[in-house]
Structure formats: structure tokens, C-alpha cells
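Re: the 249-residue chain
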Amino acid sequence: MTIFIAIYITLLGLTLGSFFNVVGLRVPAGESLLHPPSQCPKCGARLKTLDLIPVVSYLLSRGKCRHCGTRVPLLYPLGEAATGLLFLVMYLKFGITLEGLTGALLASLSVIITVSDLRYMLIPDKVLLFFVPVFLVLVPFMTEHPLGYHVLGALSGGGVLLLLALFGGMGMGDVKLFALLGWIIGWPGVILAFFIACAFGAGVGGVLRLLGLIGRKQPVPFGPYLAFGALISFLFGPEIIGAYLSFIG
């Protein structure tokens, strides 16, 4: 039975991932999520059912529009695959629980803001405002810690990035995002998430600069790294922190 549930949740994640791509691309541009229907941005051809199967359509068409041959951005299948994989991981880790639901919603938020930030260098307030009340309600029922842990997580996460923003090193979208992520993962998970985000961001940015794919002073979206750090902390934070404390002790 477990394997069938796992398959269903993965397929659900893949399908929702396709929708999350639409949200991440259209909301920052001020476009409707419903109109126009999915179409090729180059030739305007309306996409058929065969073009809308998550990941599979991209592979079958070899990453090109079937009508005009325009290259389809890799961001589309990656967003779908990431959502499916994250939904599966959350289920395997937490099962059908409030924590598992919270993890799936965290994954959903992460995919949407990653698509948006990579495409527009923007984390839309509309997206954050949609998720804020959901997490405000869910987290108190999910957590085993006193609620103060999550309040401290939100204050420290948003506070650290606000200081960086005041010195021009961060956008306010990142500040609001990390305050929300801090509320979800709490203290001290938010500190672990920040260090993971910085380390991963520095590593990826360094590789991209060495390869000449981005300029030395070219701004790099930080939202995806914050989301990555929060996901790792949510999934494995207690184990990582416990291992670190054992090592230094």
C-alpha cells in the first residue's frame, strides 16, 4: 500500500509542479493564471494534452516546441521534477501527517519562488501573502517545540537578512521570505538554513563565474538558496545539529 501512496504523491507533485511553473512565471509579470491557456511563447500555438505531461512531454519533444522548434527552457521540467521528488521525500520522511503536509507546502513555496527569482530576480508579495496565513495556522499544530521557537526563528531569519538588505546586499523579498521560512523551521533550524544557503550559494556562484556563465559583479538570485537551506533544515535539521554538537563536544 505504501508504494502506491508514494507513486500517487509523486505524480501529484509532478502535476502541481507544472502549475507552480505557471504561478512563478505569470504572477510576477502581472498575468492571469487562467488566460491565456498554455501556449508556446514564441509561435503562440496552444499546447495540447501531449505537450502538458510533466517531464515526459519535454523528453518526448527533445526540449523543443513541436510546432516551431523553439527550445523549451529547462526550468519547466526541472520545476516539475523537483516538486515530484520533494513531495515524495516529504512523504517518506513524515508520512501522512501535519508535518508531511507542512513539508509539501514548504516544497510548493520553494519551487514557486525559485522559478520566479531565477526568471525575474523577484519574489512576489502575492505568493508570500498566499502562504503566510496557511503556515501561521499549520505550524502551531505541527510543532513539538514551544511556539516561541518559531517566533524566534521568524525574527532572527528576517532580522539577519534585513541587516544585509540595509547594506545593499539583499532584496526585501528575500527578507520577507526568510522571515516566513524562519517561522516554519524555527530556532535553531533557521541558523542552519542560513549557513547552508550561504555555502551553497557561494559554491554555485563561484562555479558559474569560473565557467564564465555570469559576470563578476552580476547579481545572483538568493531566494532559491534560502529555500534550499530551509528544506534541508526542515528535513534533516535536528540530525545535522545533533551531529555537529556531538563533534564539537
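The two ends are 43 Å apart (CA to CA).
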